[in-house]
């Protein structure tokens, strides 16, 4: 299987834009070419998507595209705008990776002290019933917020991230929360595979699941960032998972 994955990656360098698939252990290449957006077309699509978002339409965000890699730059006045720009770019067909270089800069009147930011973040975490508030530590330095601690489920970690990201005054948000569960059962590999297969968005995508201890690794090919994130979320939902290594390759077939 490892050799197969290596060959599949190698094929994409030799025949970019062609459909590859497996048949009886052999990798076949379709003569049919897939239309790939030009750098300019991709740049325009991402810019249009950003401008379509009510939160971002007045933001000064620059977009550069090169072979599916999109770089976001510019200055915004809140962390939530910085985060939303990245999420929006990932939804665009043709985007394989996003490099985010957006800077958060406040007007003097909007500048918050580290103490004010810390208090607001703690209150936001405490008000969210999905988050075990007493298991999370918050550190703030020059507007840079770091979340630490240990939680049992990834959805709790994501909830903490979402709650904190809405706080005014944050320039950078780092989520270092680790997932550790008391569940002593072995991770059900087949259960993760079924969860991925039955999700409507996956559409029989080529996703392989590997389990080692409390860690899950995902390999294969999907057609969008959304599918890649869905597969990872399905893996995180399995009891006993402490870490997910998402090695899925995005290959858009239009």
Helices and strands in order, then pairings?
Blueprint lengths: L1 H13 L3 E6 L2 E8 L5 H14 L7 E7 L2 E8 L2 H12 L6 E4 L2 E2 L9 H14 L8 E6 L2 E8 L2 H12 L6 E4 L2 E2 L9 H10 L7 E7 L2 E8 L2 H12 L6 E4 L2 E2 L4
Parallel strand pairs: 4-5, 4-6, 8-9, 8-10, 12-13, 12-14
Antiparallel strand pairs: 1-2, 3-4, 7-8, 11-12
Describe this structure in words.
The protein is α/β, with parallel strands linked by helices and 254 residues long. It folds into four domains: 2-33, no CATH class; 39-104, Histidine-containing Protein, Chain: A (2-Layer Sandwich); 108-179, 2-Layer Sandwich (Histidine-containing Protein, Chain: A); 189-250, Histidine-containing Protein, Chain: A, CATH 3.30.1340.30. The protein contains seven helices and 14 strands. The protein has helices at 2-14, 39-52, 79-90, 114-127, 154-165, 189-198, 225-236; strands at 18-23, 26-33, 60-66, 69-76, 97-100, 103-104, 136-141, 144-151, 172-175, 178-179, 206-212, 215-222, 243-246, 249-250. Strands 3, 4, 5 and 6 form a four-stranded mixed β-sheet that branches. Strands 7, 8, 9 and 10 form a four-stranded mixed β-sheet that branches. Helix 5 (154-165) links the parallel strand 8 and strand 9. Helix 6 (189-198) runs antiparallel to helix 7. The longest helix has 14 residues, at 39-52. Mean pLDDT is 83; it is low at 1-33.
